[in-house]
Design goal:
The chain is built from 13 helices and 15 strands. With about 375 residues, the chain is an alpha/beta fold. The strands form 4 sheets. It has a 7-stranded mixed β-sheet with strand order 2-10-9-8-5-3-4, with helices on both faces. It starts with 5 loop residues before the first strand and ends with a helix. The structure holds pyridoxal-5'-phosphate.
């Protein structure tokens, strides 16, 4: 029997049927009252899920585009910025910022760890940074940064606080306004449980003011143009929006709001706890350090002699469950189970069962059912 594979990756994630149906509705034109109504609803729903009163802009693009927008709109070549890096995505931000001529100081942590507020405080004493970039959930390692605590450290300082929430928004608590975040970047294909192709940026008034003086080259990404179009009597976008994707993500946001933001975070937390418990019951080690383990993705160290890529392949080809492997230096050494977005207990149990079988197949001694039982205990 041919069945759809279960997508337990950190994006793209599974998309609810209602969202797919919304994406499939007949096309409408983007300069019509019908589109303005849809766009107005989307903007309101985004503000609820971003927990902000700030404007949230939508661009047809992936998360990397949103990160580029966050660099080119709020800085000028030569500006000094601090980029915290706890993995691949912190590194990516540093690369983008350098590409646009910013002076980048990197505060990097060993893989698997979160950045500490003490280290940030120390760095902030050394220079007058114009901005700090922090990854909320480092998808490549399964560690997350404490954005609330970092917000406390930089509040009252004249530093723009920019958070990459591409793999966390809608899965991990993120209080944009309460935690003092100027710019939050996310994308549609992860915890927001919609198709890939949209990036979103929430932008504080202070950041919009700074955007007026930013000298980095930009055209498509100009947030002032996007804001002006959004604030017209009939809200719209400067250029053709991805209408179908907007319909889809708007439906996904409605589903999140209907479930309740706190309930959504609790579901993620429960699934993560169950995953971690199962992994340990199988005698495997978690990659991220205690206290930094994310509730949207679990990274698992592979025992000596076991190739994570092989486990991933068996889980996909024989058991219909797609997980992620390690990236760059971690390739083969870890596997990553995404439990973000449209995921429930049944999905997780199936994933753990598939992991057990794959481990057995590569010769790792495991008692079938030990992981599943441990997961069930926490669900
Ligand atoms: C934390 C984080 N930032 C940025 C990105 C880049 O997003 P995209 O692949 O949509 O460009 C990702 C993608 O996995 C991510 O996890």
């Amino acid at each position: 029997m041919k069945k759809e594979k279960l997508l337990m990756t950190p994006g793209p994630t599974m998309v609810p049927h209602e969202v797919l149906m919304a994406e499939a509705a007949p096309m409408i034109h983007h300069r019509t009252p019908e589109y303005s109504d849809l766009f107005t609803q989307l903007n309101k729903n985004l503000q609820i899920v971003f927990q902000t009163k700030n404007s949230v802009l939508t661009y047809p693009a992936v998360g990397t585009g949103g990160l580029e927008a966050a660099v080119v709109n709020f800085f000028s070549p030569g500006d000094q910025v601090l980029v915290t890096s706890i993995g691949v995505f912190g590194e990516r931000v540093a690369t983008i910022a350098k590409a646009f001529g910013l002076k980048v100081d990197k505060l990097a942590m060993p893989l698997g760890k979160a950045v500490t507020t003490e280290l940030i405080e120390e760095r902030l004493k050394t220079k007058n940074y114009r901005g700090i970039f922090v990854t909320h959930n480092e998808t490549s390692t399964g560690a997350f940064n404490n954005i609330k605590a970092i917000g406390e450290v930089i509040k009252d300082k004249n530093i723009l606080f920019i958070v990459d929430a591409v793999s966390s928004l809608g899965g991990l608590e993120l209080k944009t306004d309460e935690w003092g975040i100027d710019v939050v970047v996310t994308a549609s294909q992860k915890a927001l449980m919609a198709s890939p192709g949209l990036t979103f940026l929430s932008i504080s008034d202070r950041a919009f003011e700074i955007a007026k003086t930013s000298k980095c080259p930009k055209f498509y990404w100009d947030v002032l143009k996007a804001k002006a179009a959004m604030e017209k009597p009939s809200p719209q976008n400067p250029y053709t929006p991805a209408v179908s994707l907007i319909r889809g993500v708007n439906k996904a946001l409605e589903l999140i709001i209907e479930e309740g933001l706190q309930e959504v975070f609790e579901r993620h937390s429960r699934l993560a706890e169950a995953t971690r418990h199962a992994v340990e019951a199988l005698g495997l080690k978690l990659f991220a350090t205690e206290g930094a383990r994310s509730d949207v993705i679990t990274s698992i160290k592979m025992p000596e002699g076991i190739d994570g890529e092989g486990i991933k392949k068996i889980m996909s080809e024989k058991h219909g469950v797609i997980i992620a492997g390690g990236q760059q230096d971690l390739k083969g050494k870890i596997i990553r189970i995404g439990h973000m977005g449209y995921v429930d207990e049944g999905d997780l149990i199936k994933t753990i069962a598939a992991l057990e079988k794959a481990l057995l197949e590569v010769g790792y001694t495991v008692t079938l059912g030990a992981g599943v039982t441990a997961a069930r205990e926490r669900l």
